[in-house]
Specification:
Elements (H helix, E strand, L loop, with lengths): L13 H15 L12 E12 L5 E13 L7 E7 L8 H10 L7 E15 L2 E12 L2 E13 L3 E11 L9 E2 L4 E16 L6
Antiparallel strand pairs: 1-2, 1-9, 2-3, 3-4, 4-5, 5-6, 6-7, 7-9, 8-9
Length: about 200
């Protein structure tokens, strides 16, 4: 007689659960203790997305001018990255000039993020999901920022990505208004950062 089919919805045995948990733990590893090699800054950029009425939303970019970090374990890494306001580009010259004027580029030429801590999560292969904690300074105003992102450790190189949102009003920047109020820029901006350290091709 053929034995009855096993219920596919039956819970797995305790031994199987323990085995699966063991595999997960071995795969994840202690992400916070992940060794971070000392590598020079290769290149990178930040992209910022702005929402506006009348005209289409637009995206700008700015190359990273300087960046560095210290620390030997991921959870203990600290560092900074700087961007020059004058190098911000949106693809439209007049809009670029308005952006630099709104950010008082002559008086406050740098945007700087100081990394004060890293909160690693589970590690998968060479990639560690993290939250970067730090202080973002724009137009002379500094605010605390938490930015979800990832650290990718390659052969001889390291890549960092992070995404977060800011409200330009928090940094003393008035959202631009043009065309007698018909054109308005939303105060919230989405920022994406990509940095490369070591022997890895820099982003375009």
């Amino acid at each position: 007689m053929t034995p009855p089919a096993r219920d596919s919805l039956a819970p797995p045995s305790p031994l199987r659960v323990l085995a699966l948990l063991g595999l997960l733990a071995a795969w994840a590893g202690p992400a916070g203790a992940q060794a971070v090699p000392a590598l020079p800054f290769t290149g990178g950029a930040a992209a910022f997305r702005v929402r506006a009425t009348v005209v289409k939303d637009f995206t700008g970019t700015v190359a990273a001018a300087r960046a560095q970090y210290t620390g030997t374990a991921l959870a203990g890494v600290q560092g900074f990255v700087e961007f020059q306001v004058a190098e911000m580009h949106t693809g439209v010259g007049l809009r670029d000039r308005h952006t630099r004027a709104a950010m008082a580029a002559d008086s406050f030429p740098l945007i700087r993020f100081d990394l004060t801590g890293v909160e690693p999560a589970l590690q998968g292969g060479d990639t560690v999901s993290v939250v970067f904690r730090g202080r973002l300074t724009i137009r002379g105003v500094t605010r605390e920022v938490r930015a979800p992102g990832a650290v990718v450790l390659g052969h001889g190189g390291l890549e960092v990505t992070a995404t977060f949102s800011i409200d330009m009003r928090d940094y003393g920047i008035t959202p631009p208004v043009r065309m007698l109020g018909a054109l308005r820029v939303a105060p919230d901006i989405e920022v994406r950062v990509h940095l490369v350290f070591g022997d890895v091709a820099a982003p375009d």
